[in-house]
Write a structure and sequence with these properties.
The structure holds 2 protein chains of 2 kinds. Chain A is an alpha/beta fold. Chain A is built from 11 helices and 13 strands. Chain B has one domain (39-309). The longest helix of chain B is centred in the first third of the chain and has 32 residues, at 57-88. Classes of the chains: A alpha/beta, B mainly alpha. At the A-B interface, helix 1, helix 2, helix 3 and helix 4 of A face helix 1 and helix 6 of B.
């Protein structure tokens, strides 16, 4: 895939910056003081069903207003400059409902025109976008005759045909089989990394966010509970996991007395860093010495690495 | 889009070249903004209603309705041609034609079925599928606002219904004029054209508004069309019964959407209403226009409330 370098997305300034978002429907609070920052590249918006992901996308598009808080999308406030924001944003909704008797090419071309492209440009870009997502030969087929996977690809083509600066994808792999899913994620990676279009990928599937995105925003109960580069949030050694050959109670007591948070589960012991410390090698030496002092044999000793799943499940509890 | 061509040097013939990759390029040309978006929606909607870029079965209804609207008008124009030929043969053809051909106002009653069918089926076709298929959400995630979307859709419906309310009298005018039955003098011409446009729009606007209002309540096209026809045909029957048999006031007829737009048309052309039953008192023009405005306002209100409630994403 050839691509000219990004021209319109500022690599430093946040693409989306939202502070203290509160959105309620009646007595139901969907977003409750959420702070969200989305930078250039591919960002995952992760959360369980009902966590407020789709509501957040609606707020970013200016389709409804937050009761509290502020939002900037591409430097604009969607509540006052909604049309300008939406002209520069591509959106692929979660639902698979599309007009069944409209050919894919007409559908994508029309929505590119609605996003402001002149007719001739919309026609050529719609055709090219459909080729790019792998529907070149199928582009004149009515949408109603297409499979779920093909319709998902049509939605992606529709979202990028007008060359937006930001694309919002709501559950873009919903209903796809593993092969189609991998293809779709590869296309999304290309959009974010090669075309210079920032992507906010909303999903409840952890592994697809982990494999596709550079950064992640995790929503739970209407709040952002984690936000940052995936490499920083996960993969960090935060402690030590140990398995010994005899009762580790004396070892645990000694570690706790030394200021190291430790707890045992049978013959397994989990030891965290002492307060204020972050040297993982030093922690390993301390654990080794305490095990030797306790006269125990080591069956297994490994760093306790935090995964995105730990964060996701941790916040879900 | 950039294209890379791979050509096999051993086979210099053109067919050996093929596109391997179409690539992607950024677009930094002009964008047409919200008004361009609205124009695109109008064009796309009109094309859909006419069955363009759609399967053949989608073209059947508009073609039949257009035939219903235009064939009677063309026949009347043909009669004027025939009348002139008879006149040239010494037969008083023009007098016969004058007895037979309709006025511009009464011509509406010849094409009433086409107008009703268009109004009953166009607005549901325009609004209902957008909510049913999720297109509304896609439109509103573009530069369109709800108001702009509705104005664009209403303009498309108005344009469509006007094809059968403005087109036939215009053809009649041209036909009458070329055969010597038309307006005489510039003032008469201008007056007739203004009345034709005003009358056509009066019918289009009211029927479009009512049909859009009904279509804004349901996402099912068939239900919206049936409800519109029931309101236009069923309600007048009840009101006529109440006025004629029940002795209620003639003003009750103002709820009759079948005749109300044509009452307005006959007032525009300053012709007596053809809907009066013997002994009935004719409604004043002000009363007719007040009822017209009330129906219009109620329809716009229903549309506004319905679309304010529509949730696009949540």
């Amino acid at each position: 895939m050839s691509a000219s370098p990004p021209t319109t997305t500022n690599a430093v300034a946040p693409v989306v910056r939202a502070r203290g978002l509160v959105k309620r429907y009646g007595s139901t609070s969907v977003l409750d003081g959420a702070d969200v920052t989305v930078l250039a590249g591919v960002t995952g918006l992760l959360g369980a069903n009902g966590a407020g992901k789709t509501t957040l996308l609606g707020l970013l598009l200016g389709l409804h207003r937050a009761q509290e808080g502020s939002i900037e999308v591409l430097g604009l406030d969607p509540s006052t400059a909604g049309s300008e924001v939406r002209a520069r944003v591509g959106y692929a909704p979660e639902h698979h409902l599309l007009p069944p008797d409209v050919p894919a090419d007409d559908f994508v071309r029309h929505l590119a025109e609605v996003h402001g492209l002149p007719s001739s440009e919309a026609t050529s870009r719609a055709s090219d976008a459909l080729w790019w997502v792998g529907l070149g030969e199928e582009r004149f087929r009515p949408l109603g005759t297409m499979s779920t996977g093909q319709r998902q690809r049509v939605k992606l083509a529709m979202a990028i045909a007008h060359d937006p600066d930001l694309v919002l994808l709501d559950e873009p792999t919903d209903g796809l089989d593993p092969t189609q899913r991998e293809t779709m994620l590869e296309l999304i990676r290309s959009v974010g990394h090669e075309f210079g279009i920032s992507v906010l990928l909303s999903s409840h599937l952890l592994d697809e966010v982990e494999r596709t995105c550079d950064r992640v925003v995790i929503l739970d109960g209407g709040k952002v509970v984690a936000d940052g580069p995936i490499k920083e949030l996960s993969g960090t050694a935060r402690g030590v996991r140990l398995e010994v050959d005899e009762d580790p109670t004396p070892l645990v007591a000694a570690l706790v007395a030394g200021g190291y948070p430790a707890e045992s589960d049978g013959l397994r012991v989990t030891i965290g860093q002492a307060e204020g410390a972050d040297d993982h090698d030093a922690l390993l030496r301390v654990v080794r010495d305490h095990v030797a002092d306790a006269g125990l044999g080591i069956r297994r000793l490994e760093p306790q690495v935090v995964t995105l799943e730990d964060i996701f499940l941790g916040v879900g509890q | 889009m950039s294209a890379e061509l791979s050509v096999d040097p051993a086979a210099p013939q053109a067919p050996s070249a093929r596109i391997l990759e179409r690539g992607y390029r950024r677009y930094d040309g002009p964008r047409r903004g919200a008004s361009g978006a609205a124009r695109s929606v109008i064009r796309h909607t009109v094309q859909r209603c006419l069955g363009l870029h759609r399967p053949a079965r989608a073209k059947v209804f508009p073609i039949l309705t257009l035939l219903l609207a235009y064939v009677p008008t063309v026949i009347y124009v043909g009669i004027t041609v025939l009348g002139n030929r008879l006149q040239r043969q010494g037969v008083p053809g023009r007098e016969m034609v004058n007895q037979f051909i309709p006025t511009y106002a009464s011509n509406y009653l010849q094409v009433v079925l086409a107008i009703l069918l268009f109004a009953a089926f166009v607005a549901p076709e325009v609004l209902c599928p957008d909510r049913r298929t999720g297109m509304l959400g896609l439109y509103l995630s573009a530069p369109l606002t709800r108001t702009r979307y509705l104005v664009a859709k209403a303009a498309a419906v108005l344009a469509m219904v006007s094809i059968v309310t403005v087109g036939p009298p215009v053809i009649l005018l041209v036909g009458y004029a070329t055969q010597g039955f038309g307006p005489d003098g510039l003032a008469d011409w201008v007056g007739t054209i203004v009345r034709i446009l005003g009358a056509g729009l009066a019918v289009s606007v009211l029927y479009s508004a009512v049909s859009l209002a009904i279509s804004s309540i349901t996402s099912r096209k068939a239900a919206a069309s049936a409800a519109f026809l029931a309101l236009i045909i069923g309600l007048p029957s009840l009101l006529t019964f109440l006025v004629v048999a029940g002795g209620y006031s003639t003003t009750l007829r103002l709820g009759d959407l079948f005749t109300l737009p044509y009452e307005a048309v006959f007032r525009i052309f300053e012709e007596p209403s053809p809907f009066l039953v013997a002994g009935e008192e004719e409604l004043s023009a002000a009363t007719v226009w007040a009822a017209y405005a009330a129906w219009l306002a109620a329809s716009v209100g229903v549309i506004a409330v319905s679309y304010r409630r529509v949730q696009v994403t949540r």
